[in-house]
Specification:
The protein is of the alpha+beta class. The protein contains 7 helices and 4 strands, in the order ααβααβαβαβα. It has a 4-stranded antiparallel sheet, sandwiched between helices. The chain is globular. The protein binds flavin mononucleotide.
Length: about 190
């Protein structure tokens, strides 16, 4: 048994983006995270996902472009607009996981579940390297105008934005499900 993996999985937690700071993963670590992210179950090897790595100045640029789209679609208070304009810049690195399900014998739901597995692999890989991470979604994930800004094709959407950085304090545990309410045991 790989008890360090079991220990890590038992204790891992997401870290809120607002508690993240520099540094993020370096280029080698990022390459490892993306490699691990790609090692997910994937029915019929369709690879129905891809990545947008948002770092450096692109965080601010893309946030501003998306804020512009959002402000055209809905009324935003000045504070909301200001927050949107720096959205991705809250962490050193954001990996947008793009789900790209196609018409295929493999149902779209299965393809999207594979993209979800990619998101959690990123969470786990980043956490195992000692980084803080959180899976975040939002209005831009399935908004057609936002999808254009992000360079997505018509059939693609954002399965998750994985924010990654460092944090000074580890988060405390949160309430976890009561297994007796979740599991039906069938033994004979
Ligand atoms: C698909 C998906 C979308 C999520 N979107 C958000 C979000 O937009 N904002 C947020 O605060 N948490 C969001 N969460 C929850 C966090 O990623 C995370 O589950 C929570 O902070 C506690 O996770 P932990 O059990 O890994 O510590 C989302 C989770 C999933 C699975």
């Amino acid at each position: 048994m790989n008890s360090s993996v079991i220990d890590f999985m038992h204790n891992r937690r997401s870290v809120l983006v607002k508690n993240m700071s520099e540094p993020g993963p370096n280029a080698d670590e990022l390459n490892t995270i993306l490699t691990i992210a790609s090692r997910v179950p994937d029915h019929r090897k369709l690879e129905p996902w891809r990545f947008l790595v948002i770092q450096g100045d692109a965080r601010q640029r893309l946030s501003e472009e998306l804020a512009e789209v959002k402000s055209q679609q809905m009324d935003l208070e000045p504070e909301q607009l200001a927050a949107e304009k720096t959205c991705f810049a809250r962490a050193p690195l954001v990996i947008a996981v793009i789900a790209a399900p196609i018409e295929h014998k493999t149902p779209k739901n299965e393809q999207i579940l594979s993209a979800g597995a990619v998101c959690q692999h990123i969470n786990i890989a980043a956490g195992a390297m000692g980084y803080a991470s959180q899976w975040v979604t939002g209005w831009s994930c399935e908004n057609p105008d936002a999808q254009k800004v992000l360079g997505l094709a018509g059939h693609e959407f954002i399965a998750g934005y994985l924010y990654i950085g460092s944090c000074d304090e580890q988060p405390t545990e949160r309430k976890r499900p009561d297994l007796s309410e979740k599991v039906v045991w069938l033994n004979d």
